[in-house]
């Protein structure tokens, strides 16, 4: 029997790059063995269990070794010590025995997730948190009809989760406050940055902001106002540099003598510009082809070039995370 205080994950493939078709259950070590392919790098000294394909375990070992070599491995234990805390089992009931937090990571398919949570609902007791990694599916649909609904919530990580710490915590209307509190504390303990979404809304907070930005970016390209390449520069060399350290509301606060001053100064201009925003784009047709061609000039869409660019991106995020850890606000 495994020790208590085990963190469990049920996943298909790896986060953020699903590569397998069979659903596996996964338990990750605590607190010194955060595992690179997973959205929950869990802290602790307790042995954990892992039921995965050999390929997934091989990839986990490879990536953790690379992280260790680059100095980016989290926790105080080395890669081999962390990997030694991962063991396997072949039965879902056995896999979740003794867990206090189960993080589901199957593909973004409502029916699949509902089926999985229905199985877990029949197995778990009243002490385990049932958490989904869904990026958009509403908790009221994900957990509908479950006996243990008060123990359920969405804990949505951001890709790549090993380097981007944000986790959105989204409750079901019947989620117990203690479930939110426990999950918030766990995420803080393992070095993530949890935010409480106080009530469910389609897209939560991150994707609502992201899709608003993508929508206007698309409209600007479609209208011939800016090229796709220059549009990306507006973010990477403009807004993104600020937003890596402070959010849009604090940006407003600092760009005037506080929020109220900013609103007094720029209210009418903001409202005027917002009124010019167009309808929701189709994200298809000639504009999609134009954007695709522009992106392929920069990064060809074959697997090798995409993988190399993702590796470069992750390295940049790793270095940025280190910098953010060194730069503390006054």
Automatic annotation (TrEMBL):
Key words of the record: Cytoplasm, NAD, Oxidoreductase, Phosphoprotein
A single Gene Ontology CC term: cytoplasm
Chief location of this protein within or outside the cell: cytoplasm
EC number: 1.1.1.45
A Pfam cross-reference name: 3HCDH_N
Record organism: Sus scrofa
3-hydroxyacyl-CoA dehydrogenase C-terminal domain span: 203-275
Top EC category: oxidoreductase
Gene Ontology biological process: fatty acid metabolic process
Subunit structure: Homodimer.
Protein name per the record: L-gulonate 3-dehydrogenase
Gene Ontology MF: a single term: NAD+ binding
InterPro entries with a match to the protein in the record: 3-OHacyl-CoA_DH_CS (IPR006180), 3-OHacyl-CoA_DH_NAD-bd (IPR006176), 3HC_DH_C (IPR006108), 6-PGluconate_DH-like_C_sf (IPR008927), 6PGD_dom2 (IPR013328), NAD(P)-bd_dom_sf (IPR036291)
Family: Belongs to the 3-hydroxyacyl-CoA dehydrogenase family.
Domain 3-hydroxyacyl-CoA dehydrogenase NAD binding: 63-200
Matches recorded under PANTHER family: 3-HYDROXYACYL-COA DEHYDROGENASE FAMILY PROTEIN, LAMBDA-CRYSTALLIN HOMOLOG
Subcellular location: Cytoplasm
Keyword Cytoplasm carried by entry: yes
